[in-house]
Amino acid sequence: MVAVVPAVPRTARDLRYITTVLALTVYRFAPRGDDLQRRIHDLIVTKAQPVPAGARMLDIGCGSGSLVVKLAKAAPDSFVTGVDSWGRDWEYSQRQCAENARIEGVADRTAFHQQSAAAVDGSFDVVVSCLTFHEVGDLESATGALVAALRVVGPGGRFAFLDLFGDPGHYPSPDGVREAIEGAGGTIEEFGGLADALPLPFPLRHPKVLGHALLVVGSRPRH
Ligand SMILES: C[S@@+](CC[C@H](N)C(=O)[O-])C[C@H]1O[C@@H](n2cnc3c(N)ncnc32)[C@H](O)[C@@H]1O
C-alpha cells in the first residue's frame, strides 16, 4: 500500500536487505499475511463514528473500494462515495471497486467516481482518506489536498484522515498540518501516530514505510 523508496543499493548485501524489506512489507499488508491494510481501514471506520442516520460519506483516494465497503456496512442506512484518479501507479480500478461493492452487498449504497482529490466537491457528513494526500500530484503540496478534503466536510460533519503527516518530504511539520486543518475550519479531536493506535511490526515503523503516518480525527463546527 505504501511504496518503500530504498537508498541506491551499493552491494549485493544491500540488495538482499532491500528485497527482504519489500517482501516483508507486502506480507504485512496482505490479507494472507498480517492483514494490516484491513486493520488500518477498521481503525478509520471506528474513528469516523458516530455516523448520523442517513449519512453521506466520502472516501478520497478509495483505491480498491475496501474502505468504502466497510463504511457502508458499518452504517446500513448510509450512502458512501469513493473517488480516485486510478492512475498507472496503482493496480486499483473503478471496475474493481464496483465489483467489490457488489460482492459485499452494498452496490446500491455506494458510488465510485474517477476524480482527483484536488477537485472534490459537495458536502458530506463524514469524509475519510487513507494514505492518499501525499500521492496527489496535481496540487502544489499534500497540504493542498488535505485542505481540499476539509472543504467538503459539511457543517457538523466528521473527518478521519491517515497520511504521512509527519514526513518532512511531504508536509512542513505536524504543527503546520494542525494549522492547515484549523485554518480550513476543522476542529481537531485526535492527532497521533498510527503506531500508537496499531502495533506496527518491522519494517512498518520505518520512516520510509509508515513511521511518519499520523491519524487526524475531527469535525467541522456547525457555525
Ligand atoms: C496508497 S494508495 C491508498 C488506497 C486506499 N486509500 C487504501 O487505503 O487502500 C493511494 C491511492 O491514491 C490514489 N491517488 C493518487 N493520486 C490521486 C489523486 N490526484 N486523486 C485521487 N486519488 C489519487 C491512488 O490511485 C491510490 O488509489
TrEMBL record:
Keywords, alphabetical: Methyltransferase, S-adenosyl-L-methionine, Transferase
Record-annotated Methyltransferase type domain positions: 58-161
Entries under CDD domains matching the protein: AdoMet_MTases
The organism's place on the tree of life at top rank: Bacteria
GO biological process terms held by the UniProt record: methylation
Record Pfam families: Methyltransf_11
InterPro entries: Methyltransf_11 (IPR013216), SAM-dependent_MTases_sf (IPR029063)
Gene Ontology terms for molecular function: S-adenosylmethionine-dependent methyltransferase activity
Entry protein name: Methyltransferase family protein
Originating organism: Asanoa ferruginea
